[in-house]
Amino acid sequence: MFYQIYYFVFVRTEACALFSLCRYDSVTTDGQLNWQNQLNDNNKPFFDVSDGIFLNYSWQEDYPSLSAAVAGNRKFDVYMGIDIFGRGSYGGGQWTTNVALDVIKKNDVSAAMFAPGWIYETQQPPDFQTAQNRYYTPLILLMLDIHIYPTIQLWWDLVEKSWGISQIYPKVLPFYSNFDQGRGYHLSVSGNLVSDAPWNNLSNQSFQPYLEFSGDTETKTIQAFVDFKQASYSGGGNITFKGVLEGDTYITKRIFHGEIHSRNSPLRFTFSVKAEGSSVIGLSLEFTDTNDDVEKKTSILLASWGDKLLTMERFSGKFTTVIMPHHANKLETAPEWIIQESKVTPQESTLTGIYALCYKSDPKSSTSDYHAVLGHISIQDSANNMIFPPTSEWHVESQNVNWKTDPQGNKTVSLKILWKLISDAACVFSKYNIYVENETNESAQASKHVGLALVKAYYVTDLLVPAGVTSLKFIIQACGMNGDLQELVDSPFLRLRVEDL
Asked: Which of 107, 88, 102 is nearest to 37 (CA)?
């Protein structure tokens, strides 16, 4: 036992600056494999020298309260296990996972979910994306062309009803979200499709929306969901709003519950929209000011581009302030996307809510169909624009370059690319897009996206080099924390001459 505890203390001491170290409830202090399913004298010595303990999932109803009593003021470091497959787990797991969560929450301890891939691995109907998210009514299912199942349980909806949601963001500026879940069936950069191949990279996740309806109508005929199927503005996902909206009614749906403190300084909001017909999206902002324990709320509408007079007539009585965009541009390379930019200068208060406002630019439209897509949201201090270092301030090099030719004569190259700023400039980037250009003696072909990096290094593996190419130009495009991208022509690069084999 003492050797185990000594080793635990050593590992935790060495790694504490990088990550937390938790003990799993398996081997007891006498060295035997004997799951306790609760915190007790047989595993507490390990708990005392670690950051937490994951308890096995075969616990009984009173085990969370007993474990909380043993943990004392560290009760939230106790994680009661729940096996989502339901293998001996309290409550049965699967679609009754919330039964165990209710007991855990009641006793003020934490939860550890084992094998949440159950939905995907067992192919729960009607499909993975639908089954794991939220509850859909028969009307919404019909609108989404899902006709087989009259009602569908959605797993994370059960978790939310039991555990609640506590996401509080944005909190700091700049803030950016493209709603990416770190996976998709395609990949886009600034509205341009750069890959139509399925991908998975959880490190590329963005802030996720908290979708909740409200508005001046009781209708729930507009469904909002993170969509992976149609082309995105950035990454592999977006928020799609689809359904029916009559006349001049509108619906708001909360996207983020924030906590940004504003001190009379301008804020710049930028968001991308792709819509059909007269469907449009605006952003509704909720600011909260608390003086002398009296809470005062202010609502500001960042309206969609369009008829200013009509917009003011419709919404001036419903919002404290209505602001039309001062920029609304269509992308030359992807004209279906409209980038809207608005500036807000609120009084000293806190931005507590960001909502998407769905409405029709023409209330007299002959169709009630509504379909619009929100591609991204960016919020930043207007005074702090992103400035990218020029190419001359970067050092780029290659390592481990390996050329190969297969029996058919196809040439490939593998290498490691590294880059860094020459100066000690305090520049922070969220990620880097990597492109390659095939150059010949006469010209260079269009840039092709080959991947992204979260650190200043990227491995290229077995990249096919077409015949006639004399050099490869690898371009490293820095991405700002606010979502801005450095222009490719101004980005650092590595030129690699093709070797004859």
From this structure: 88
Query: Which has more pLDDT, 396 or 265?
Result: 396
Q: Are residues 226 and 367 in the same domain?
A: yes
Tokens 């969220």 identify what position? Answer: 430
Q: What are phi and psi of 129, to 5 degrees?
A: -60, -40
The dihedrals phi and psi of 324, each to the nearest 5 degrees, come to -85, 150
Determine the Cα–Cα distance for residues 250 and 372; give it in Å rounded to an integer. Answer: 13
Check pLDDT > 80 for residue 429: yes
Give the per-residue pLDDT at 217: 44
Is pLDDT above 90 for 243? yes
Which residues 6+ apart lie within 8 Å of 35 measured at CB? Answer: 25, 26, 56, 58
Measured CA to CA, the distance from residue 337 to residue 331 in angstroms comes to 6
* The pLDDT value given to residue 140: 40
Question: Can you tell me the distance from the alpha carbon of 389 to that of 421, in angstroms, rounded to the nearest whole number?
Answer: 8
471 burial (CB, 10 Å; 0-12 / 13-18 / 19+) is middle
Give the torsion sign (CA, 16, 19, 25, 31).
Answer: negative
Give the helix ranges, DSSP H, for 183-294: none
Distance, CA of 184 to CA of 236 (rounded, Å): 5
Residue range 323-329: mean pLDDT, rounded? 94
- My answer on whether 317 and 203 are in the same domain is yes
The set of residues, in sequence order, having a beta carbon less than 8 Å from that of 122 and lying 6+ positions away, is none
Secondary structure letter of residue 366 according to DSSP: S
- The pair phi, psi for residue 500, each rounded to 5°, is -80, 135
**Separation in Å, CA 226 to CA 170, 229, 280, 416, 466:** 18, 10, 17, 35, 38
| Residue 78 burial (CB count, 10 A) | 26
Do 183 and 266 sit in the same domain of this protein? Answer: yes
Phi, psi of 435 (to 5 degrees): -120, 160
pLDDT reading at 198 higher than 90: yes
CB 375 within 8 A of CB 274: yes
Distances (CA, A) of 466 to 194, 253, 399, 414, 430: 19, 49, 22, 14, 32
Closest CA to 419 of 431, 410, 409: 431
The answer to whether the peptide bond before residue 170 is cis (omega within 30 degrees of 0) is yes
**CATH number of the domain residue 45 falls in:** 3.20.20.80
Are 244 and 200 spatial neighbours (Cβ–Cβ below 8 Å)? Answer: no
Contact, 281 vs 304, CB < 8 A?
A: yes
**CA–CA separation, 403 vs 83, rounded Å?**
48
Count of residues in the chain: 501
CA 173, 177, 182, 183: dihedral to nearest 10 degrees? Answer: -170
**Are 150 and 212 in the same domain?**
no
3-state class of 481 per DSSP? Answer: coil
Residue 447: give the domain boundaries. 391-497
Asked if the model's pLDDT at residue 205 lies above 80, the reply is yes
